Amino acid sequence: MAKSTTNILKIFELIFTIGSLIHISQAITPLILTKGANEGDGVSITSLDLSLNAKISLLVYFLTFVLLAMRWRRVLATISSNKFLWILIGIVCFSYFWSINPEQSFRFSIYALGTTGFGLYLATRYTLREQLELLAWTYGLLLILSILFAVAIPKYGLMSGVHEGALRGVFTHKNQFGAFMAPGGVIFWLNALQGQKYNWIYWCLLLMSCATMVMSQSTTALGTFVLMLMLCLVYRIFRWRYEVMVSAVLAVTIVGIASLIWIAGYVGSDSLFSSVGKDATLSGRTFIWKAVWDQIQLRPWLGYGLAAFWNGFSGPSGYVQLAVRIPVIYSHNGFLDLWLSVGLVGLAVFVAGFLSTTLQSLALLRKTNDPEGFWPLLLLTYILLSNLTEGTLSNLGSSFWAIYTAISYSLVIAKNNNYVISE
Question: Which sequence spans correspond to the domains of the chain?
Answer without folding.
Answer: 2-416
